[in-house]
Amino acid sequence: MAEVKVFGAWGSPFSRRVEMALKLKGVEYEYIEEDIFNKSPLLLQYNPVHKKVPVLLHNGKPIAESLVILEYIDETWKNGPSILPKNPYDRAMTRFWAKFIDEKCLPALWKAAWSAGEEQEKAKEEARELLTFLEEELKGKKFFGGDSIGLVDIAANFVAYWYVIIAELVGLKLVTNDNFPNLCSWTDEYVNSSSVKENLPDREKLIENFRARFLQTK
Ligand SMILES: N[C@@H](CCC(=O)N[C@@H](CS)C(=O)NCC(=O)O)C(=O)O
């Protein structure tokens, strides 16, 4: 049997992406929890470039970077639902939106949540502008992937779960039913779909963790 290991961190949306895809595909794997503040020699050996989780180890071969891993999983395990479309144009668009989420939306949402004053106002404005593109992309669709969860949905997991918790914690009202109805109903669908629900970190534990890391020094 193939050896599949995931080096991850329980609260990381990036490592949850990988676990989500493996679970959707029905691939069994061993999970190894890393302490990202005290990384194991194995993690550093498998991801010497970025030194980050997640790393997928498949039959001894390491793969890093969650979006790269998601594509690898889709190409390697053909059983179970595909998370990328078949058509080359649609595949390109999937990669486009996943990259947009990672490079633009996540940094803007993070900054909007944890900065203050003028910097925060600017970040909020930028985040609103960026989320409008996702709102448009979801028009008439249940998921970014259409009727079922695809790579972009998995890539946007932070927006659906982590961000909502952080926003509540810091009192940020950026995404509401009034201004982002599609995004809100997607969030609902995503976090309540059975395969996702069982693979989300505990809400209270996340809150505790964010409080300890970001609020006590404020
Ligand atoms: N682009 C990376 C991001 C992964 C990432 O930022 N991982 C964090 C945990 S959420 C990490 O390992 N941080 C450790 C560090 O930055 O030293 C991916 O998609 O896999």
Please characterize this protein's 3D structure.
The chain has 218 residues and is of the alpha+beta class. The protein has two domains: 4-76, Glutaredoxin (3-Layer(aba) Sandwich); 88-215, Glutathione S-transferase Yfyf (Class Pi), Chain A, domain 2. It is 58% helix and 8% strand. A four-stranded mixed β-sheet has the order 2-1-3-4, covered by helices on one side. Strand 3 and strand 4 (61-64) form a beta hairpin. The chain is globular, with a radius of gyration of 17 Å. The mean pLDDT is 96. The protein binds glutathione.
Radius of gyration: 17 Å
Name the overall outline.
globular
Q: Give the class-level CATH name of the largest domain.
A: Mainly Alpha
The percentage of residues in β strands lies in: 5-15%
CATH fold-level name of the largest domain: Glutathione S-transferase Yfyf (Class Pi), Chain A, domain 2
Elements, N to C (H/E): EHEHEEHHHHHHHH
Features:
218 residues, alpha+beta, 4-stranded mixed sheet
Give the helices and strands, then pairings:
Layout: E1 4-8, H1 13-25, E2 30-33, H2 41-46, E3 55-58, E4 61-64, H3 66-76, H4 88-114, H5 117-137, H6 151-155, H7 157-170, H8 181-192, H9 194-197, H10 203-215
Helix pairs in contact: 1-3, 4-5, 4-7, 7-8, 7-10
The structure holds glutathione.
